[in-house]
Design a protein that fits this description.
Homodimer; disulfide-linked. Its EC number is 3.1.3.2. There is one protein chain. By secondary structure, the chain is of the alpha+beta class. Helix content is 24%, strand content 26%. The chain has a seven-stranded mixed beta sheet, with helices on one face. A six-stranded mixed beta sheet has the order 13-12-11-23-24-25, with helices on one face. A hairpin with a 6-residue loop joins strand 24 and strand 25. The termini are far apart. Bound molecules: 2-acetamido-2-deoxy-beta-D-glucopyranose (2 copies) and fe (ii) ion.
Amino acid sequence: MVSRILMLLVVSSLLNLIHNGVAEGVTSAFIRSEWPSVDIPLDHQVFKVPNGYNAPQQVHITQGDYDGKAVIISWVTADEPGSSQVQYGLSEGKYDFNAKGTFKNYTFYDYKSGYIHECLIDGLEYDTKYYYEIGDADSTRKFWFQTPPGIDPDAPYKFGIIGDLGQTFNSLSTMEHYMQGGGQAVLFVGDLSYADRYKYNDVGVRWDSWGRFVEQSTAYQPWIWCAGNHEIEYMPYMGEATPFKSYLQRYPTPYAASKSSNPLWYAIRRASAHIIVLSSYSPFVKYTPQWRWLAEEFKRVDRKKTPWLIVLMHVPIYNSNEAHFMEGESMRVVYESWFVKYKVDVIFAGHVHAYERSYRISNIHYYVSIGDAYPVPDKSAPVYITVGDGGNQEGLAGRFRDPQPEYSAFREASYGHSTLEIKNRMHALYHWNRNDDGKKVATDSFILHNQYWGTSHRRRRRNLRRNISVLCDFKQAS
Ligand SMILES: *[C@@H]1O[C@H](CO)[C@@H](O)[C@H](O)[C@H]1NC(C)=O
Ligand SMILES: *[C@@H]1O[C@H](CO)[C@@H](O)[C@H](O)[C@H]1NC(C)=O
Ligand SMILES: [Fe+2]
C-alpha cells in the first residue's frame, strides 16, 4: 500500500516535470500563427509584371549618401540587360540630367535572376521634387521622388517604420495604411520578402514578386534597409550557403558613405535625424568590424545638427513576448551602455510578430555575483519599440509573458506599422497604427521628447526663470 502511494507520488512528480519541460520548450521556441496568413498568389495584380518588352520592374530607391543629397535607384529587367541609365530632372518628361549605372545577375540554386540595375544619382538639391525615367525604347517607366530638407536641427520629417512585411494580404493592408499616412521615408527593420519560406527556384521567384509588390511605395520614396534573419538564406541543402546572398544583390545601402566596410551596418543623416542601422546577424562583440565602426559612428553624431538619434536593428533588446524572448540579450550586453551614454532617442526593431513599446529603462549595472540584473528606469535610455507586425505568412506572436514586466509600456499582437513625425528639435509625434481588419486605427501614440534638446531645454528654462527672478529682485531693490 505504502509503496503504491510512493509510486503514485513518483509518477505524478515525473509527469509534472515532463509537463513543465515540454510546455516551456514549446512556448519559447515556436511562433504561433493565431490567424494563419498565406502569401498572395503569384497571379494577383499586386505582383503584375509591367507591360512591354524588358520593362523595368521592382523599382526601389534608397538614400545614396550620408546627408540626403543622393539616391540609389535599383530595378530589374527580365529579358536582356538593357540600359542602366537614369534620366532625371525637375519637371515630368523634361530630363536635364542623366546618370549611368551598372547591372549584375546572380543564380540561386537553378534560379537565374533578371538583370539587376543600380544607379547612383548625386549632387541633388534638398527639398526638391525630381522626376525620373528608366528603361528602353517603348518600355520606359516614369517615377518621382522628393529629396529631404537639408541637415537642420529643426527640419520636420515624417518616417514610417515597418518590419517583417512579407507578401500576404495582411502585408498589403499594412502597405496601404502606410501609404495613406503621408510618410516620407520608411525605416525598415528587417525581414523583407519571406522568400526563404520557399524552396529551390521559388526563393528567387518570391524575391521578384516582393519587389513588384512594394514598388508602389519604394519607387517613390527611400526605404532605409536593415537585414533580418529571413535575409540570411543559409540553405546548404540546395548548395546555397552564402549568407544574405539575395538581399545583398538586390537591396544596396550607402554603407561606404558612413565609413562602414559592410552593407549590413551603416548610418545616414536625413533632415534632423541621424539613423544608425545595425545587423543582428553579423558579428557585433568587442573588436569586430561592426563594433569598431559603431564606436566611431557614435562619435560622429552631432546633436546640434541632427538632434534625433535613431537606431534600427532586427532583434529587439527588450521584448516580453514568448516569441524570441531573450534573443536580443547578447547585443544588449555589448551595446546598451553606448545607447545610454549617447542618449539614443528611440530604437526600432522587428522580429517578434507583435507590437511592443518600453519605458525608458536600462539594465547596464549587471552584477552577476549578487544577481542584481533587472531593468530600471533610466532617463538617458532609449525607448525600445518592436514593430515586427507587418503581416508576413508566419502569422502573429500572440502569447505575451505574464505578468507584463514593469519595463513594458504597451504591447499588442496585431498587424500594423508605426510613424514618427519629427516636428522640431524638441518633439516628435509617434503613432502605432493597427490595421484593424482594413480600417486604419491609431492606437498607441505619444509625444517623444528629444533626449538631447528636451533636457537641455529644461535646463535653459530653469536658468531663464532664475534669471528673471534675479532681475525682479534687482528691480524691487532699486
Ligand atoms: C548573367 O547573364 C548572362 C547574359 O545573359 C549569362 O550568360 C550569365 O550566365 C548570367 N550569369 C549569371 C550568374 O546568372
Ligand atoms: C541665465 O544666466 C546664466 C548666468 O547666470 C547664463 O549662463 C544663462 O545663459 C542665462 N540664461 C538665459 C536663458 O538667459
Ligand atoms: Fe525575424
